[in-house]
Amino acid sequence: VRLDSCFDADLSRRRAFLYFFCLLNVLCLLNPVNTCEQTQPSVAYAITHARIFTLAGWTIDDGTLIIRDGKIAAVGAQVPVPQGAQVIDAKGLQVYPGLFDAITQMGLREIGAVSATVDSTETGNYNPDVVAATAVSPSSEHIPVTRAAGITEVLAVPASGGLDSSGSVGVIGGQASAIHLAGWTIDEMLLKKSAAMVVNWPEIETQGFDSSTFSRKEKPFSEAKQEYDKQVDELADWIERARHYAQVLEKSAPAEFDRDVKLEALASVVRGELPLLIFADRAREIRNAVEFCEKQKLKMILAGGAEAYKVKDLLRSKGVSVILKPVQTLPLDEDDPYDRLLSEPAELAAAHVKFAFASFDNSFSRRLGQNAANAVAYGLPYEEALKAVTLYPAQMFGLADQVGTIESGKIANVIVTNGDPLELTTEVRYLFIRGQRTSTNNRQQVLYEKYSKRPKAAN
Amino acid sequence: VKISFTYFLRSQRRRIVCLTYLLGICYLPCAVAANPPDAPRVILIQNATILTVSHGTIEHGSILIKDGKIAEVGSSVKAPKDAQIIDAAGQFVIPGIIDCHSHIAVDGSVNEGSVSVSSMANIAEVLNPDDPDIYRDLAGGVTSANVLHGSANAIGGQTVVIKLRWGQPASRLPFEGALPGIKFALGENPKRSNFRIQSQPQRYPATRMGVEETIRAAFTEARDYKKAWDEHNKRVAAGQKNLIPPRHDLRLEPLVEVLEGKRYVHSHCYREDEILMLLRVAKEFGFKVRTFQHVLEGYKVADEIAAAGAGASTFSDWWAYKVEAYDAIPYNAALMTRHGVVVSINSDDSEEATHLNQEAAKSMKFGGLSHEEALKLVTLNPAMQLGIDKRVGTIDVGKDADLTIYNHDPLSAYAVVQKTLIDGRVYFDRQHDIAERADREKEKKALIDKQKKAAEKKAEEKKPEARKPDATVTIGQKPAEKKSQEKKPEEKKPEEKPKPPSGAVTQDSKVTTLQLSVSGGAL
User: Fold this and answer.
1) Which residues contact residue A112 at a Cβ distance below 8 angstroms, ignoring those fewer than 6 apart?
2) Do B6 and A336 touch (CB under 8 A)?
């Protein structure tokens, strides 16, 4: 129970911020110190004498990486340094693809408690047409703080659900956008504007919270089940209508029918182009979601997945990938083993279920590596952990040809570290996003330096 | 956001818990350590890397434990004949982790949110030894915790330091001899910036000005109250008879203890200005602030905190969840340490508490603390802040054998707790926990099956009975139960309800479940 930080961490708590909003308009107090440089104009870089973990099947002990025009131009042990390239001698350092946080609220939420700074959650239950990229603030202070931890790209994920007292969470949250963590404008930051359609799978909730009275409210199972079925039916109805709409869209000229922006947004989903990113934790809901998507012929990525281990065979056989909530989460049930979530990644890997790690947050995004390392401590092979924060999320969103490994031709999102990027004490020495040298300086470092210089207080 | 948020999370948790109810296993997990582990009188931990925190690192060292205390520490400790040996080859031993800000083991809500001064409420009176978070935190290496109320009140309730003696009754949780504390809270939470309870009027205070005055007013009363009692006691001592004593005031008495230095003040705070405010008020009334909690802007006024002799207990890297947490920096612990403040890293959260070792490690990266300084943030320093450093916090002869054993350097994200000892007893053992899982699964399954069978049986018995009561006689052989049911027709009432679909959660199923667990001897 995080008492003093109320609006935080993972999506299991993501509903919290729906309930507690103040109407403080105190932005003037925020006093932004985002003096941190964005990217610099592109030149060619040569990172030499580095140990390069390409994650593409081989590691180069003493290699050179050439970055030019935003891309990885060459990588290898015997690569010549092009003329005019800025040379970075990385002797003793290590090179990795930048980390990919597969679910965040980056840029959509600045200060959890201040609704004026929160754009992550639209009101209403079905908002397939809203797009995260629209509201991502390129000057969010979270962005430089996060990339200092070696995270170069994230998925910004919207949610739905009003701020009404019922505290209900909407079903279709909108379109998640994959973004680079650098750029002067959102256009520069965009990796993929529409990378997934967010669905918050309904839950059978017998116990809820009524924020108008600050009390628990219970309802009988049969009633909760009825509501659940109704929501699932509604979702099916949306998909059905979108399918018809998509058919009309294909066959008719726009002038011949009434356009519907919401159904139009779902067209790529029913065509099987855009995956659904379905949030569900309990085995029962996961199973239902998988069956639903199979029946409707939709692509699905599971998000959350606290009980994915219970349905691992189903997930593997249906080829459903999972974006796991942080392993730093207590077990769902009192009688679960204390390390239930910590050991889940190892169990899924052994069952050949593909998964990625994610923070499900913005201010905790920098714990991405820590979570992956914790999973290794509980049995996950190290390389799988590394891929689960780089290559695998890229694959899930159809971005593996662009990011996730160090191979020539890919976008140069690259980190140079003094050690294992998942370990707590490792520092990111150099950071490249879209092939541009990017600063690791950030609001917190600025404050640190400022107050480090405060003269001794006269007491 | 105290009240609301805790309540909300708890309700979420209950929702989850209720699912386990229907499986009939709701309180089983706690049975893991329902009985305190047997403690041999003499234990020798050997071949370990011992991070003493007080006098460096001992490679291939041993720790001899006698009657719950550390009897010897060194590289050449001989094993007494009767000693139980814990071979810790390749492992690391540290003093048990101390969490200076915890809300575990509390029965019900941690906030008495109705009033701005709730000093009469005492968390020690609602300790719940069955809270599974005790075991989870123990499995994260925590051996002692400062259990506090939430931050709904400028002056909150009385706090208690506990040892995580999982399986022992509530009376055995408190850390013997540790001074009690009181929770204060400054800033957004006591002034309720981030939420309103719609059914309640706005509560005073609503500003940081009001927070200060709330505290000042309470201590003004407490000072007068103390004076009245002092005078009364003086008269009693002088032999005067037939005196009428002042009326006892349960709200002011803990504040008098603060004035007398018998109770520590642990104050939730964020901004630099409110930190200095409390120091001024404390000076005015002549008490000390023992620790500032959270104190995310402590780095801005580190000199002032150090000069006042106050401790600071902060987070590793939480930030931006509200305005007063926007200037939080992960360098906070290191910067304050460098200015001479005794700093600890706390959890405020039962999950965060399971990896405080990792949170402490971040201060090596952010601010450059040494390995030992970082380790102190979760061992010796919180012990000092809670006034229990004579008993715990380092690995030294004479101290309590509260120890945590890791498989790697504890200041790494790859370290896993192997064993946690309190008073020389192994309260958590990872291998043991893992080994028990199959049996627990089996037991759980047996209980579920039993419940299912019972439910089916009941359903079958009811059918003929409802239609043709006499039919039961021909089935025969069901003497006692049947009779009692027939005698008390009112008992049938709940059974007449339609059988809920499997997986149903109703009041009734909870009751059956609990009865089943008890009758099944699961506990």
Assistant:
1) A6, A7, A8, A17, A118, B320, B321, B322
2) no
